[in-house]
């Protein structure tokens, strides 16, 4: 297995990719060694959930702990459930909108809440609201004595000037569109039940986790590779390697409080879409075309507080771009789930 400290020059296949994504850092191993109780991951069947569960399992094994990792999802993808089962993660199928099913989920002292829906919101907004609010409330009632880390999104912030360094946790929220408003509704449910039951919570507002099979860098790189113009109207962004994001999510259990701790989960840099595309052009030996002009504002988050409390991400933006370029050039498997990073009207 790859040591977390060994960041490879390239990632050449899915087995290596999954290994890199799920290799625990020494900090994570040390943290889970001292952690009491099992880790329950709700929404474990999504894009981040499977690697999060296996990362937690590998950290527990490396620490010599007897704790279990329990992954809960509807598991509409049987292959995802099998992948977890084969790696020692306990799987449990449940629909979190079903109150009876929620009551039957195994107890756990530590809960990582990864549940949410984004794409398709414009077509079915009521479902997005139900998943992002009703499910959250039912889970918080069921696990009132547990410790939570709940994933949120930077979409709840207003667009900020591109030279501002990004929105901070102390600033205002100003969600644009149905999805962002529903995501803020999810936060409000966690805040309400945290206050009511004194449940410790960390709310992590994520901006663009990167896995070579999907992500904002993959979206930009694909356009360069195929000769399509890159839209630069939403001209700046933040992103973070998914392995670093998952590592931080687990360790954020340590800073959970009531009322909830707020952390922006992303990389420390404000990245230019134009510069990213030009770097892909160099690496892929392709001419780069652009459409639009950069707006003076963008959806940006300042991760200084998260970096101070949990550490700076280990994988740099240039490393992520190099890995992605190599992956695309060698026809690496893709999930075909675009991020729609260029959207400015909140319609997903």
Automatic annotation (TrEMBL):
Pfam families: Epimerase. Residues 39-206 form the NAD-dependent epimerase/dehydratase domain. This is Epimerase.
């Amino acid at each position: 297995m790859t040591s977390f400290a060994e960041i490879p020059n390239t990632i050449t296949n899915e087995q290596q990719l999954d290994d890199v994504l799920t290799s625990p850092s020494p900090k994570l191993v040390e943290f889970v060694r001292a952690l009491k109780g099992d880790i329950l991951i709700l929404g474990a069947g999504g894009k981040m959930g499977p690697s999060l569960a296996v990362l937690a399992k590998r950290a527990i094994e490396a620490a010599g702990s007897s704790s279990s990792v329990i992954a809960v999802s509807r598991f509409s993808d049987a292959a995802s459930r099998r992948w977890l089962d084969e790696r020692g993660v306990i799987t449990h199928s449940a629909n979190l909108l079903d109150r009876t099913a929620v009551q039957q989920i195994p107890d756990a002292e530590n809960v990582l809440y990864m549940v949410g829906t984004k794409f398709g919101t414009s077509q079915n907004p009521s479902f997005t609201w139900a998943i992002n609010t009703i499910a959250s409330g039912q889970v918080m009632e069921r696990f009132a004595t547990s410790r939570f880390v709940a994933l949120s999104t930077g979409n709840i912030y207003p667009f900020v000037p591109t030279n501002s360094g990004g929105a901070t946790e102390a600033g205002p929220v100003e969600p644009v569109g149905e999805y962002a408003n529903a995501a803020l509704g999810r936060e409000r449910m966690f805040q309400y039940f945290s206050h009511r039951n004194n449940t410790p919570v960390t709310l992590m507002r994520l901006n663009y986790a990167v896995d070579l099979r999907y992500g904002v860098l993959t979206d930009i790189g694909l356009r360069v590779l195929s000769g399509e113009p890159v839209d630069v109207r939403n001209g700046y962004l933040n992103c973070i390697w998914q392995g670093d994001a998952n590592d931080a999510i687990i360790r954020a259990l340590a800073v959970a409080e009531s009322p909830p701790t707020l952390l922006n989960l992303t990389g420390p840099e404000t990245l230019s879409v134009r510069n990213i595309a030009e770097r892909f052009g160099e690496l892929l030996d392709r001419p780069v075309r652009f459409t639009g002009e950069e707006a003076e504002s963008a959806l940006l988050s300042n991760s200084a507080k998260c970096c101070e409390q949990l550490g700076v991400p280990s994988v740099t933006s240039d490393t992520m771009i190099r890995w992605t370029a190599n992956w695309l050039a060698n026809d690496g498997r893709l999930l075909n789930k675009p991020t729609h990073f260029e959207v400015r009207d909140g319609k997903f």
